[in-house]
Amino acid sequence: MMRLNKLVVLVLAFFCCHLTVIAQQVTGKVTANDGTPLLGVNISVKETKTGTISESNGAFQIAASPGNTLVFSYIGFATYEVTLGNEKNVDVTLKEDAQSLTEVVVTALGVQRESKKLGYSVTAVNTDQLTQNRTTNVMESLEGRVAGLNITPPAAGAGSSMQIRLRGQAAFAGANNAPLIVINGLPIDQGARGVNGLGTPRDLGDNLSNVNPDDIESMTVLKGATAAAIYGARAANGAIIITTKSGRKNQGIGVEYSSNYSTQHALNFFDFQTEYGQGTGGKRPTSGANAATTGHFAWGERLDGVPTPIFDGSLQPYSANPDNLFGFLQTGTDFTNTIAMSGGGANGSFRASFSNTDAEGITPNNEYNRKIANVGINHNISKKLKLQLNINYTNEQQVNPPQIGTQGPGAVNFFTRLATSIPLSALKNSAIAANGTETLTSGFQGTLLNPYYALAVGQRYETNRDRFLSTATLRYDLTDWLYVQGRYNYDFALTFTESHDPGGIGTSVPTNADGTFKGGYNLSESKGTDVNADFLVGGGKEFGKFSVDANVGGNTWRVKNNGFNQSSSNFIVRDLYSIGNGSVRNQGYGFSQYRVNSLYGWAELGYNNLLYLNFTGRQDWFSVLNPEDNSELYQSVSGSFIFSELMKNQTWLSYGKLRASWAEVGSSNGVNPYDGVLTYGISQNQFQGQTTAGISGNSAPNRFLRPFSVEEKEIGIELRMFGNRVTLDVSAFDKITTDQVLDVQLSNTSGYNSSKENLGSLKNSGLEFLVEVKPIQTPNFSWTSSWNHAFLATKVLSVGAPSEIIVLNWGATGNEFIGQLRYVEGLPMNQVYARTYLKNEEGQILLTDQGRLIPTTDYVSFGSSIPKHTGGWNNAFTYKNLSINIHFDYKLGGVVISSTALNANRQGHSKQSLVGRREGEKGVVFPGVYRSNEQPNTTAVDPATFYADYRNNQMGDIVTFKSDFVKLRNVSISYNLTDLMRKSNVLGFIKGLSVTASCRNAALLYKDIPDLDPEAIQSSGDFRSGYENTSLPTTRNFNFSLNAKF
């Protein structure tokens, strides 16, 4: 017996020793691609099913044998496997998986939901795209990356705004067509303070400039009405949901630093003629006085280099200087630095960051500075009570944003209309005349300003904006499936603007004996307060194969705005910028406030991970509407069918979903406070010593106004195939907007000029595609290619009786007196109208007996300015720690009238204007027939007269082009140095390090419009849709960035 016991002990000892050899302890560390330690990573041994999770510093320990396979899995990252040899230490770097990241998305009201349960189109943005090709406005990085999201950055200087449209333009021009922006649960309007067709304004940016790309945790685009229906009236144009970072639990203290430096170089697409110089009637200037009134005409003699008088009386070679504009412009720069500290323990996490941006535009003295402080806190006060706090403070300073337009003192307007025979050095050195005023260069006094004069005498426009955003959320878990939540949002903005208009500038309204301006000074201040408070009661529970998720809540939204402005002009003492120095003074004050109260709810019913049905409803009560009828009900229903659950034996299909939705939402855009009641104002005039008052404005109140309505239907399919190597997402939608709020002209006998009414109906319908393919996926090399495309068809269903047309005259918005923007029943939206050639029944162009053009009496359509096709193609390559990204995008199917082309033809600068004045030509003999006898034209017309007729007759034929383009938008290359840092004895304290170099607007591969980049034609508003109005040249940006974690 004793011997048997000894034998058993020896056998057990042998096996224990053997197991010790086989099941050794393996240790290691798990980090993200940027070097951040990952807490809670699941590590398992594939053969034995044993497992563990990583600690806060990423460390782990697990028993495994040589030849075993360790499997590392973590939400948001690609699963990674490693086969063990004899090593006892294994360090693993997990890479983010874009597919995994989209499994859970942030939807309306900040609620996280599984994407498979959604019956509508939602796109989760890869936030790396926001920092790889950084610009001052975070949305610019998304051009061509999301199907149905149309982004156009106006070429309007540092810190300018974006035009953002989701699935077209829901309302007529003039209304707010931008999607709702929601930051940490706080809804804000885009608030574009940009060029919208009024005079020659400056672009002052938008509310998205408050967001630092380094602070963004997630961004979700809710395209359709169903996705955003729970936001009610504010989200008729869709919504973009942004969540900022707030640290991670149990990660310890970490510091992150990022630095980005970029240069912007103006792109020269101008190809003006360089054969003829300044002058009129085929003659060059003969004196300085003659030259001073013809500087912007190039109808002179052939350039020959002979010294010729210019505007300042000096003799200069009669030669071409085609790059004057680009000699005046400078290289723009943008330097952004962000430092952040984050940490987390068992009961919460935090992140605090500060960023500073210093930028200079491509026009001299255009500066932009932005400082952003951001704090995010998550804290478990108790096991059931949780606090989330987000605070954002932004200060923006914008100095001398350039003026845009052909009827004002913008630099582009000046140089593109200037004869190339005038050298840049003379414009700079002779800008100031002997009497201290602007030296006259052109007969267009007041329309064209030598920008060197403005620089020399200190013309200045400066705006300072402070913005404070805060969100506080308390959530209490009543049970493990039921919670109650309260949230308070506060948004405050203060904007101060000051402008100096120096004396001596040539003006069309002369105030001095010499016809120059005496100087002016303007001050303005505006305050806006936006308060949102909401509550939510929600929960979810499973009942066998069935699941229910339901939420009910309410919201109150209060807005208060006030502001004042003071101005003085006709200075008594020149260049003394004071309100009291002006002999003409004006002041004004404005105030408005309104409120919207809401109740809402939604419910989700699920069956067996196969079927999901969602319902939403929201009732809004508006203070701006008639109290007797001031509420609207918005509702939606959507469903999804995960048909891949029924096809699990089909190995080629990883995931398949059909979805469908219907929604009815609306918007009170266009209904302003007090539109339904009479308002009164106090006049500065007095009668018999008493202050007088009267009815304010010329618009008759309409107490029966109501929000316009948007009804949208959508269907779609999502497929992931061949082990998630191929992804397909297709959506079709149909959206109709009715009862839009429009201004209607009234007879003057009524005592008013206009009134607002609910009129008009518009339709947007389209298809959206996303195709993503991963042709190569190996441990060291991968290639992911994705293509998104959107087709958009628009139609005007009604503009209201009795008219079938709404006309927006560009001539009233600071343009070169050509064309109209129209909404015509039965045609696509945003029709570009102008006169055209008068023709006979055979289609021949009719001319006068003098060989001159005859315009049609009526305006005709040249097409819609809205592109029918938009999209992008992205290719991402990774080799070990090296990443390369190449992105193309395009817009096709729109038209544009070019003010630059109009002036270039009329003033003799374009190559087209050479026809009729080269050697052997006596004028333009236009191919047409005489109206009087329909015989072929043989009469030559002086070119200056011929091309002026297009402008004088409002004819758009030779200045209307396709706005199509195809661009190589971005090229970037990144390298992750984290592995090198870990191996370094000196730099081991650096937990993550990466560097990136990129180029934005790398190449314009195709365009139709001459001399311009088609993207330089847009603005943040819709009034100038389809009208190019001498914006700044677009730029090619070179970016260099560094990101380090400690």
UniProtKB/TrEMBL annotation:
All residue ranges annotated as the TonB-dependent receptor plug domain in the record: 117-239
Chief location category: membrane
Signal sequence coordinates: 1-23
Subcellular location(s) of the protein: Cell outer membrane
Entry membrane topology: Multi-pass membrane protein
Record keyword Cell cycle present: no
GO CC term (a single one): cell outer membrane
Family statement: Belongs to the TonB-dependent receptor family.
Protein name: TonB-dependent receptor plug
Species name: Haliscomenobacter hydrossis (strain ATCC 27775 / DSM 1100 / LMG 10767 / O)
